[in-house]
From TrEMBL, chains A, B, C:
Natural source organism: Amphiprion percula (Orange clownfish)
Keywords: Acetylation, Endoplasmic reticulum, Membrane, Mitochondrion, Mitochondrion outer membrane, Transferase, Transmembrane, Transmembrane helix
Listed GO CC annotations: endoplasmic reticulum membrane; mitochondrial outer membrane
EC number: 2.5.1.18
Recorded superkingdom: Eukaryota
Keyword Transcription: no
UniProt keyword Endoplasmic reticulum, yes or no: yes
A Pfam family reported for this protein in Swiss-Prot or TrEMBL: MAPEG
Function as written in the Swiss-Prot or TrEMBL entry: Conjugation of reduced glutathione to a wide number of exogenous and endogenous hydrophobic electrophiles.
Assembly: Homotrimer; The trimer binds only one molecule of glutathione.
Protein name: Microsomal glutathione S-transferase 1
A molecular function (GO) term: glutathione transferase activity
C-alpha cells in the first residue's frame, strides 16, 4: 500500500488524522464522565455495578439520575455527529482539498463540538447548544458537498 | 499519499464515496426530524430547551413523546447499521471488486435504508421494516465476507 | 487508486481488515440478540411489532424488559467503543506500524470486547466488565497516541 509510506508527505491527511483523533478522544471521554457521575450520584444501570459503592448489591441504586442522563445524551449526540464527521472527513481528505480550506473545516468542527459539550453538560441557555450543533453539522455538510462534487 | 490524486481514477471508490455520503446524510437528517417533532409536539429532553417554545422554562414540557421516540429509535437503528456499512464498505472497496458487483451492493443498501425509514416513521405493518433491515444487513455481511476472503 | 491493488501486499492492513470485520460483525449480532429477546420475552418497542407474536396488535406487549435492555446497553457500549477502534485503527494502520505491534493491539481489543459482551449479558460480577472495557479503551488510546506522534 503506497499510501502508507507517504502519509507523512500529505499535509491534509496529517491534519485530518490529528483533528479526527482529538474529536474521537473527546467523544470517548464521555464514557468516563458517565462513570464518574454514576459513582458519585450512586445511580447505576446494572445491579452488579452497585457493588462498586455498596458492600452488597443494592436494588435501590439502580435508578435514573438526571446528571447521568444529561452526560449520556451529550455522548449520544457525539456519536450522531462526530462519527459522520470522521467518515465524511476521510472521503473529503481523499478529494485533495487545499490545506487552508481543509484546516478551516477541521478546526471549526473540533471547536464547535468542544463548545457543544460545555453548553450541554453546563446547562447553558439555548440557543448556545443548538448553534454549536448547527456549526458542526454545516462543516460536515460542506465536506459532503465537496465529496459529491468531486465524485459526480 | 498517492491515492489522493488517483481517487478520480477509481470508479468503485467514486461510487462508494457517493453512496456513503448519501446514506450518512440520510442518517444525519434524523437529528432534524427529531428536533422538528420536539418543537411541534412540545416534548423536550432538557429543561433549557423548553424556552424555545415557552416564554419561561417549563418543567411540564420535559416529557417523553411517542412520535419523538419513534424517530429516535429510527435514528439509533441507522447508527447501528449505516456506520457498519460505511466502515465495511470502505474495506470492501479496497479489495478491488467489480464495479457492477460493488454498485449492486451500494445501491441495494441505500434503497433498503430509505425504505426502512419510511416503514419505521410511517408505522407500516411488519414485516416491511424487518425485511428492509435484513436486506441492509445482508449487503453488509456480503461485503464483510468479500473482505475476509481477500484478507485471509 | 494505487492502494487498491496493493492491499494484499500490506500485512498490517490485511490484519486490520480481518479484525475490524470480526469486531464489527460481533457488534451487529447484538441487533439479532435484541430481536431474539424481544420475541421470546414478548417485549416490543413498537405497536406494529407485537403482531409478530400476537394475532392482533397488542398494546400490552409494548413494554420494557430488563433482559432486552441489558442487551441494548451492551450494543450501545459496542457503538461507543468498537467504532472508535475501527476509525482510530485505520489511521494507525496508515502510520506503518510493526506487524507484531499492530497484531497485539488488534487481538487484545477483539478479545477484550468478546469478554466484555460475555460479562455484560452474563451479568458477571464487577469489576470483570469494567476491566474488559478499560483494556479496549487503552488499546484505542495507544493507537491514537501513535497516530498523534506520527502526525505532529
Amino acid at each position: 500500500m503506497s499510501s502508507l509510506s507517504s502519509m507523512k508527505d500529505n499535509q491534509v491527511f496529517l491534519a485530518f488524522s490529528t483533528y479526527a483523533i482529538i474529536v474521537i478522544l473527546k467523544m470517548m471521554l464521555m464514557s468516563f464522565w458517565t462513570s464518574y457521575f454514576r459513582l458519585t450520584r450512586k445511580a447505576f444501570a446494572n445491579l452488579e455495578d452497585t457493588k462498586l459503592v455498596s458492600p452488597t448489591e443494592d436494588k435501590k441504586l439502580v435508578i435514573v439520575n438526571p446528571d447521568v442522563e444529561r452526560v449520556r445524551r451529550c455522548h449520544q449526540n457525539d456519536l450522531e455527529n462526530v462519527i459522520p464527521f470522521v467518515l465524511v472527513g476521510l472521503l473529503y481528505t481523499l478529494t485533495g482539498p487545499e490545506l487552508s480550506t481543509a484546516l478551516l473545516h477541521f478546526r471549526v468542527f473540533v471547536v464547535s463540538r468542544i463548545f457543544h459539550t460545555i453548553a450541554y453538560v453546563g446547562c447553558l441557555p439555548q440557543p448556545s447548544r443548538g448553534l454549536c450543533f448547527m456549526v458542526g453539522v454545516l462543516v460536515t455538510f460542506s465536506m459532503a458537498w465537496t465529496v459529491l462534487s468531486t465524485a459526480l
